[in-house]
Amino acid sequence: MSADPPSTLAASSRSIPRGTQHRPGSQGALRRRNSQRILQALMARGPLTQAELSRQTGLSTATVSNIVKAMAEDGLISTAPTTSSGRRALSVRIDGRGAVAVGVDFGRRHVQVVLVSLDHRVLAADAVELPLGHDAEQGIDTAARLVQRLLDEQSVSPGAVLGVGAGIPGPIDRRTGTVIHGAILPEWVGINLLARLQERFGADVFVDNDANLGALAQVSWGPYQHAQNLVFLKIGSGIGAGLVLNGELYYGHIGVTGEIGHATVAEHGVICRCGNRGCLETVASTSTMIDLLSHGRNAPIGTEDIVRIALDGDPAALRVIDDAGLAVGRALANVCNLLNPEFIVVGGPLTGLGGILLDPVRRGLLRHVVPVVGESTDLAISTLGSRAEALGAATLVLQQAELPFV
């Protein structure tokens, strides 16, 4: 991936033998499609019971049972007794046969990579700092070197890579895969991220906004796998929301959704980078917090310092976080009044603050939301930490890549 020609990975992937081809409409073709649906569900959600597989795929329990039995005999999956809702059940887990999915999270100052097996195990993960203002080529080259190093360390051959998922902090036009105005990385605006990553990695590539990927990770890796309506809010240099509605990521018309950071919360506030005035990002982003808390200090502070000094009880930090949390809660109230989600999960680099951040967000939410909606909405801090977006990127691959062994 570093010095190798871009086509190396793709050529290796194509060398994996495919399953026997069947005539469209034949019983064999139908069974293969059903097998793919079951495997895709297991890749997207991890181990599931046969009853859960039936609900996820829409296939009858008898069909699921027959296909599971056949695939277990072929070594594609493994099964084990378990309990579900107090009843005996059969847990089904995919056998990845060494295949991996790559997840890449591009940030304003970092790139993070995870390698994930098809049975939902994190095989390797690492992050590298990037300079503020880095361009797309620098970020992509750094990611490619990091991916290659992790593959080498895990002795994973290029042909075992199912695909690469990637996220960026900003809107992406889903029609073209192009980064559009409003991204936290202005140097990347206008870049066709999908085409550039395909060229660099020579593999199947899937791209999305980082907040969408954070939401996807919550329902794939976190404790919300049965959630049908969830909002993931990432508070960082920018503020964005990923929306899971009726069990699916919501993209709207062209993919630009969840831009809650540009909701107006201070009518006469400062000008935002988007050109509007008083956006949520101008009062509650980590960049704003850093600017406010850097005054009068001997050395500049970063996001980690905000968490550290707030946990130590620094009064200025606590006030800044409280003000930001109230503003975030107010903006979330409008989202809740419109969508009535079951869960709101807060992620980003400030999750280590726990209740220090969540309490003012909750107060702001409950002050401005319809009471019954507020009472029925569960607000929590993400348990996935800094890996959420990279895990979501890997999940894109698990959900959408072509399976090499059916």
TrEMBL record:
Gene3D superfamilies linked: 3.30.420.40, Winged helix-like DNA-binding domain superfamily/Winged helix DNA-binding domain
Transmembrane segments: none
Family annotation (Pfam families): HTH_24 (PF13412), ROK (PF00480)
Alphabetical list of SMART domains matching this protein: HTH_CRP (SM00419)
Domain named HTH crp-type: residues: 40-94
Highest taxon of the lineage: Bacteria
Location of region: Disordered: 1-32
Family in the record: Belongs to the ROK (NagC/XylR) family.
PANTHER family: GLUCOKINASE, ROK (REPRESSOR, ORF, KINASE) FAMILY
Record's protein name: ROK family transcriptional regulator
